[in-house]
Amino acid sequence: MNWQATLQTYRDIRLLWIFLMGCSSGFPFVLIGSNFSGWLTDAGISRAQVGLMGSVATVYAVNFMWAPLIDRVRIPVLGSRLGQRRSWILSMQLLMLLLVLAITQVDLSLGLWLPGVIALGIAVCSATQDIAVDAYRIDQFAPQEQKFLPPAAALAIIGWWTGYSLPGYLAFSNADGLGWNQVYVLMAAVLVVLICATLMVGEPKSDRDALQQQAAVRYSRTTGVRAWLLVTFIEPFADFFRKNGVRVALTLMLFIFLFKIGEAFLGRMSIVFYKEVGFSNQQIAEYTKLFGWMITIAFTILGSLFNTRFGVVKGLLIGGVAMAASNLMFAIIAVSGPLEWLLLLTLIVDNFTTAFSTVAFVSFLTALTGRAFSATQYALLASLGNLSRTTLAGFSGFTVDWLGSWERFFVVTALMVLPSLLMLFMVRDRFERLAQEGS
Q1: Which of 186, 205, 267, 288 has its Cβ near the most Cβ atoms within 10 Å?
Q2: pLDDT tens digit string along 206-241?
């Protein structure tokens, strides 16, 4: 595919819908991620407790356990009016709205258990919404439309960062003046806008029902509830291993788990680091949210074009090397102090990392996902990456304290990416063959 043909794919209206759903997917991370960390830090909560409170996001690592329900269960009334994917997305958004309104009434001086429970509820709704949003993106394009995978991944990523960065900028730029409780009132208003977007986009056309009926033939000797349970909870995983082979499937899953560990540790402690090193809430808003959003968009489009022309393996290798480099630049900030130009340069490298690696990552996982159980299979793969990002990263605050300095912490996180890059280099030919088979 030449450059002109690649650019033409961006004119498809379905990519706009994917962008809007990406915004909905990224927004909850503001609620339980950067906003929550900023609120806790301003309230004087320790780094270790901030890290542990962030562990509510562990549900993202296990959402594959209930992903089959998003493939097979229809929500009454909404399912017939909005379709399978949008009905699940809207239901989760409405529940999140109620939880966000609840958190506006929280007083941190009374303890952390209530905000922790509410944050966990938001995380569960968000993780469930993510299953439906990813399936929404996959279902939009037929198997023969493989040329749309990198653009769709790019628009999903741009949407995710838009939903994460712009509300995050709104939050941190108003935190000092309004206070965090009122900031969450603003976040509720943002969620209402996202709900309207869900009602506007089109439901993807899919032959999912016919494919699921074909899969059910394997269990024709079993009837009733047991047959439904086998098709719903067993067949999606069995199909993935049959299609890829056990050895390739396990290798892929291990690579997915290892690739994002270093980035996960850094991300969990980033807001705490910015505040401790001396950056203000306004600087965090302008540089990490607003400017970070703009350069992420630019590099994501560039990453999409690169991955389309040269392949996802090269994109992953470049992104992995850049990931280590960006972590080392954070170590330089720890030594140099709150220099705005250095933060700007670091964010450019960091967002370059995110763009190249994530576009390749999402495109490759999508190519491996079957259409009969797209929600379940993609959730299985994505949850492995989330497992390191949410579960292990919960110990990031303890790691900083144990190492004794931010500089050592960022050097260690840079080294964490090396095992996955070595694995990718060793099996790159196999990964490229799998990607070609998917296309």
Answers
A1: 288
A2: 777 777 777 777 777 777 788 888 888 888 888 888
Mapping DSSP to helix (H, G, I), strand (E, B) and coil, where does residue 236 land? helix
Q: Tell me how far the alpha carbon of residue 129 is from its chain's centroid.
A: 11
Whether the model pTM is above 0.85: no
**104: how many CB neighbours lie within 10 A of its CB?**
15
pLDDT per position as a tens digit, 310-347: 777 777 788 778 778 878 888 888 888 888 888 888 88
Tell me the helices (H) and strands (E) count for the chain, helix number first.
25, 0
Topology of domain 3-438 in CATH is Growth Hormone; Chain: A; (1.20.1250)
Look up residue 26 and give its two tokens.
């990224």
Residue 80, number of CB atoms within 10 A of its CB: 11
Contact 411, 229 (CB under 8 A): no
3-state helix, strand, coil in the chain (%, to 5): 85, 0, 15
Residue ranges covered by each domain of the chain: 3-438
